[in-house]
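Thread: "does anyone have the structure for this chain?"

Original post by V.I.:
We have the sequence but no experimental structure in hand. Need at least a predicted one for the grant figures.
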Amino acid sequence: MTESVDPRFQDLDAWSPGRVATAIWESQLAAVAAVGPALPQIARAVETAALRLTDGSGRLAYAGAGTSARIAVQDGSELPPTFDWPEQRILFLLAGGEQALLHAVEGAEDDRDDAVRQVSTATLGPQDVLIALAASGRTPFTLAVLSAARDAGALTIGVSNAPEAALLVACEIPILVPTGAEVVAGSTRMKAGTAQKVVLNMISTGVMIRLGRVHSGLMVDMRPLNAKLRQRAAEMVARIAAVSLEAAQQALSLADNNVKRAVLVAKGLSPEEAVQRLSVTGGNLRAALGDV
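Reply from O.Q.:
Generated one for you, tokens below.
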């Protein structure tokens, strides 16, 4: 379906820029709307993945080729700064390797042997979660990664834009987002890519929320690595702990700029007590604040 030609756009190259922009905009809206029916499966993926990752050792892995690989890297690479997710707990299994993110690698998406090698090198196992993406659902590299990961015991989640895709049959949690034909036939970076990014946004953010890395809608595990983020961190501490901005900044200084610990310090705990409290609650600030 993603590669079929939509007769509505057969004269696309003769249209005015405004008409083309309207057509693409409408197609993007349709791509987001197509995610709706998949919400129950997305919720299932979030809950199951969070359970697998909750012990602190499991890794979140992404697999894909071409556009899907680039979307996967965009999603996963933002988890460390946003949620302080450890870099060593993220894996990218990409057709053609990292060089394929910027340059096309001939035959990479057909290389099943490389897929199996990457899974073996990564030593995926029962503690890990793999999200495999393929618009067509039949990319040989991605299917081989998924199969090898599932054989190794990893939880496998598949995201595809094609009904009856082999990828959705091979994984444990299938997520179908049928975006249909593209405005430019076969250009899956458009509708299919948009829908895949929306799904990944929901899965990764949902998992981080379930793992206690969000409190009251705030990114309390973010890494305050610049002036803007340090200011944001102070504002979060002030808001959650109900203290002045100055007191929040002082608490952050005592807590090594860790927002969660700073909240507890601002509420009266010592830095050492804050560390211990969060350790007991698995890093969940809401639970740590329960009897402060």
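V.I.: this helps a lot. The longest strand covers residues 129-134.
O.Q.: and The radius of gyration is 22 Å.
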